Amino acid sequence: MPGDETSSPPPAAPPPAALTLEAVFDAYFDCRRHKRNAPSQLDFEVNLERNLVALWRELRDETYTIGPSIAFVVTHPKVREVWAASFRDRIVHHLIYNAIKDRFYARFIRDTYACIPGRGLHDACRRVSGFARSVTRNGNRPAFVLKADVSNFFTSINQNTLIEIVEKRVSENWMRGLIRQVVFHNPRPTAILQSSQALFDRVPRHKSLMQAPKGLGLPIGNLTSQFFSNLYLNELDQYAKHALKANYYGRYMDDIVVFAESAHALNEKYDSMDALLRGKLGLRFHPNKKSIRPVHQGFAFVGFIIKPGRTYLRQSTIASAKGKIRKWEHKGGPVDEKALSSLGGSLNSYLGMLRQVNGFRARRALCLRVASLFIYPDPEFTKLVVPRTMIKKNGKGAGCAMAGAGRSGSS
């Protein structure tokens, strides 16, 4: 299993990406899939075909300009800025992603996770759990695990270095120009702020795109930012796997784990990787987040506690799920479609994590706490379902009573 890397020849170069009206329509449908009934989407769809054709012509004629982004602050699980491009600009992000993703995904190592189809939290947990078993021979041999975190990752990405990496695999002039426009775009002057200045002031200066020096940083929240950030750290992945021969290596965004039979070997690999980050990418590991410990003691990764042969969900992750429910309850348990869809979507993410461990009782407890005629679990408590036909826009009072009855009946 270690890495599952093969010595097969590199994939053939893909055909050049063409800027066609069909590609713009495909990007729209991909964007719409993730933003159903959002206000900006509905506004765009009032004159859908006219707007898509106009966008295509602007891209073709190189007159396209990026519109204002919404900026706001979230406080859980930690305080950070989030940026949301307009629906029209998100279509352009999907256009870029669809055109170039395969040529880069084919060159990623197997154990790069996040923002890659089929390689999310659950795949990361399964793979790294397998590493823990393999390196310890199912717990029968001592081994160590290194955990490291890239410091201030998104706000420290060097835009010029990113462009150099991207353009090694992108030769189409129209695509190069569009990627440069997106990467170098400064969203700050035209940003629409949807959080108070007091909240923005709570964001640490070194983690704020608002405060980032010119030429550094990508806005957290955009598809292109997620994709390009993964591509940026692919340089580290390739170095770790091929130069350092780190067979048991995995990365989820800026969180890295490496296994070895000795702590000394891991310290050497850490120093080499940190030197690569500093010298080539303008990044560094967070000095206070380095951890080397015996594998049998367990370690935290992507919300789980992993030991050889055993995996648990972190108590803080379960507490976060309960916090979502409490927040909904404090609002009176609203049963309008927007509230229930948001609640169901959030809890289904936690239920998905609990499916990876022996978490039936925890799944059952979470589901029964919110179950009613308006939101209910499947028989195995693996997901919550919101039956749209039963949601009444103006039935909040009756729904709250029913939801309350459902909770009291399950306690």
Distance from N terminus to C terminus (CA atoms, Å) equals: 45 Å
Listing every helix as H and every strand as E from the N terminus to the C terminus, the arrangement reads HHHEEHEHEHHHEHHEEHEEEEHHHEEH
How many strands appear in the DSSP assignment? 13
Rg from C-alpha positions? 23 Å
- Amount of helix: 40-55%
Class inferred from helices and paired strands: alpha+beta
Residue-averaged pLDDT, rounded?
A: 89
Strand count, sense and barrel status of the largest sheet are: 5 strands, mixed
Poorly predicted regions are 390-411
Q: Figure out the total of helices.
A: 15
Chain-wise SSE layout:
Elements: H1 21-33, H2 39-45, H3 48-61, E1 70-74, E2 80-84, H4 87-105, E3 112-113, H5 121-135, E4 144-149, H6 153-156, H7 159-167, H8 173-184, E5 192-193, H9 197-202, H10 223-243, E6 249-252, E7 255-260, H11 263-281, E8 291-294, E9 299-301, E10 304-307, E11 310-313, H12 315-330, H13 337-354, H14 360-370, E12 376-377, E13 384-385, H15 396-410
Parallel strand pairs: 1-5, 3-6
Antiparallel strand pairs: 1-2, 4-7, 4-8, 6-7, 9-10, 10-11, 12-13
Helix pairs in contact: 1-3, 1-4, 4-10, 7-8, 7-10, 10-11, 12-13, 12-14
Description:
The chain has helices spanning 21-33, 39-45, 48-61, 87-105, 121-135, 153-156, 159-167, 173-184, 197-202, 223-243, 263-281, 315-330, 337-354, 360-370, 396-410, and strands spanning 70-74, 80-84, 112-113, 144-149, 192-193, 249-252, 255-260, 291-294, 299-301, 304-307, 310-313, 376-377, 384-385. By secondary structure, it is of the alpha+beta class. A five-stranded mixed sheet has the order 3-6-7-4-8, sandwiched between helices. Helix 7 packs across helix 10 (223-243).
